[in-house]
Specification:
Elements (H helix, E strand, L loop, with lengths): L5 E2 L10 E5 H5 L15 E3 L2 E15 L2 E6 L2 E5 L4 E4 L5 E8 L1 H7 L2 H8 L10 E3 L2 H16 L5 H18 L10 H17 L6 H7 L4 H12 L3 H19 L4 H7 L5 H12 L3 H8 L1
Parallel strand pairs: 1-3
Antiparallel strand pairs: 2-8, 3-7, 4-5, 4-6, 4-7, 4-8, 6-9
């Protein structure tokens, strides 16, 4: 695969911004006509995903790391992450897909701010154990989504779903103490800028200037949200993007070099080896 496909939220469901799918039904769909743009090949998404397992287990790759999700566990996937579902696992459960717009529509700005911490994969591991209450609510969400006859169906589902998110996020509150809404907005802007501009600049001063804040302030924000300096966070993202391309595309090392903003392969190789300990070619060879 030359490039990693980007999958957007279903066009006919964009206004709602929410979908709940039974895993067995999802797994047995006819995906052949979509290959290689299927869930079983690496792809990037622009929405949130909760993978909830009720029976069995499934291996799921997120950013080339493989996670085993077992019974009564869920895996959280955030926008712009690359993931790939194992097609051979025997499992039951649900996929819950939702957009940022959905969260903003059904939650207050303050609540959205707190829930957003749940998807900060820079700090928190993506696999969570679900208690009996959370599993019960997941089942209710799935049932209401398919069978609810009520006019206020969406409001009922959002109320049930919010309990799952609140209880999941509650486990992270001790680690996010002291984080403010204003600080989060600055961090989110920095993160979004990196995602769109990383191939143009690896200089933190450029990002601070675009955000109209000082290097020092940006550095403090980065350390608060990622436990990394702004430069370390920027480098981490560049390396992650390089690894994504090395692991999920057939682009040559030279092509990846230029696509990620390096002027020539020697500097590209030095940068990658300095931060990972191995060359891009060695990294790709280890994967195969």
């Amino acid at each position: 695969m030359k490039f990693i496909p980007k999958i957007s939220f279903k066009e006919d469901l964009k206004s709602e911004g929410f979908e709940c799918v039974d895993l067995q039904e999802f797994y047995h769909r006819d995906w052949s006509k979509f290959e290689p743009n299927t869930p079983f090949f690496p792809h990037r998404i622009d929405f949130y995903v909760l993978l909830i397992i009720t029976k069995g287990s499934v291996k799921h790759k997120v950013d080339f790391q493989e996670f085993l999700v077992k019974e009564n566990e869920c895996l959280i996937i955030s926008p712009n992450q690359i993931h790939e579902l194992n097609s051979e696992s025997d499992y039951h459960g649900y996929f819950i897909f939702f957009t940022k717009e959905y969260l903003l529509n059904y939650f207050t700005p303050s609540t959205y701010f707190h829930i957003s911490q749940l998807f900060n994969y820079h700090i928190f591991k993506p696999v969570y154990q679900l208690d009996e209450c959370m599993m019960d609510y997941a089942g209710r969400v799935a049932s209401e989504y398919v069978f609810s006859p009520y006019v206020l169906k969406n409001q009922i589902i959002s109320s049930l779903f919010s309990i799952i998110l609140y209880k999941l996020n509650n486990r992270n509150l001790l680690f996010t103490e002291g984080i403010t809404k204003q600080g989060f907005e600055v961090f989110e802007k920095f993160k979004n800028l990196i995602e769109s501009e990383y191939s143009k600049s690896r200089n933190v001063n450029d990002y601070a200037e675009k955000m109209n804040i000082s290097y020092k302030h940006l550095n403090e924000i980065s350390k608060r949200f990622t436990h990394r300096t702004a430069k370390e966070f920027l480098d981490d993202y560049v390396i992650l993007e390089i690894k994504r391309k090395l692991s999920s595309t057939t682009l040559s090392i030279k092509e990846i070099c230029f696509e990620t903003g390096f002027d020539e392969p020697t500097n590209f190789n030095k940068y990658f080896k300095k931060l990972t300990g191995i060359t891009p070619l060695e990294f790709r060879s280890k994967l195969s």
